[in-house]
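Re: the 414-residue chain
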Amino acid sequence: MLDQGQFDEAEAQLQARLAEAPDDHDARLALGVTTFLHGIEEFSQTTYRFGVRDVTRDFAMMGPGFSLPIRPNPDPEPVAADDVVAMFERFAEALAEVDAILEPIGDQPAKMTLRLGTVRMDLNADGEAADDENLWRFVEAILDPPQRDPWMEPRGDDFEGIEFEEDGPNFVDPEAEGFVLGLDTADAYWLRGYCNVMGGVADVILAYDGTELFNRTGHLFFENPTTPYPWLVKTDAGNNGWFNEFDVLDFVALFHLLNQPLRDADRMAEAHAHFKQVVAISRLNWDAILAETDDFYEWVPSPDQTGVLPMRLTAEQIDSWMEFLDEADRILDGETLIPFWRGGPDGLGSAHPTLGVNLKRVFTEPTPFDLMLWFQGTAAQPYLEEGPRTQADFWQELNREFGRNFLGFSFWIN
């Protein structure tokens, strides 16, 4: 069903199985994964309908992962600021739904084999999951093609009997067909963690009123925005790329307008709860990974397993990740402060010797957001305290442990 983009049918079948057997955690894992993919499809359909511009293509020269396969819409609907808010609200709801589906699995055994590369989506809502709408296009955009060959070979006969007619309606790239994931309890935790990461980001976006930002710069991201400044919208004849002289001015305006009033302060508290949950789930995720005794198409492997990606984690790196989770918890709880970057003996760029920012209060006592005033430091004033602060040496050593690519690993291992 997923190979044909039949998400509604797959969800209905899995829900029926769970109605008969609520403890069928294999079905619950499959339902969570299917609902997540369906939510991605729905979000993509909305962005297509509103004609989201693929500004990432302008950064393609920077390397893999910067250009995503966003289908251009030849006839996009008008989009207003409230439409963008509704789009993020629905996405946040879908993420919460996935988390709620997967939570009852807990630490109980659950398994699902997924050919991620053959999943098709109806990204433009035309009722068809076309050849160029499979999930593999997104995988290819993120992974570096020259590095894929070593780990794309299928292992075992997990899909014996499934044939794909070359050049036919069901043809699938052999590399995509070979990209198999053996999902299990640990991956249920992993997916829940990512739903909370994205849910927290969505809540931060929804906490603030970006109407003025959209009205003055929405044309950078949408083909047909409804704003008081229709003359900002580009025509085909005048579109010479994202970095013409007017785009630069619009980009400057974008940063200038990142001074948004609060729309819903409760969303910031909800975002904080999401990020706390991410840390808690990550610990459970690693408990589950390290308890595994099999080695089957692992997405995030233990040091004793072989993953589907050409990356390995050592026991020392996992220990460092656990130390990071402890530090993240202390920062989110306000027990450890973020060093304040102003007021040191050497002026700008020199950290204050005793003051730090209480990140928990940033979420629980939100104020209007002004990016430039945060850079300058005065926006941090309500949250400055004296107390223990996170140390640069800790973060430098953490980055060294992960080959000076801690951020890249963190996006993967969650």
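The CA atoms of residues 186 and 287 lie 8 Å apart.
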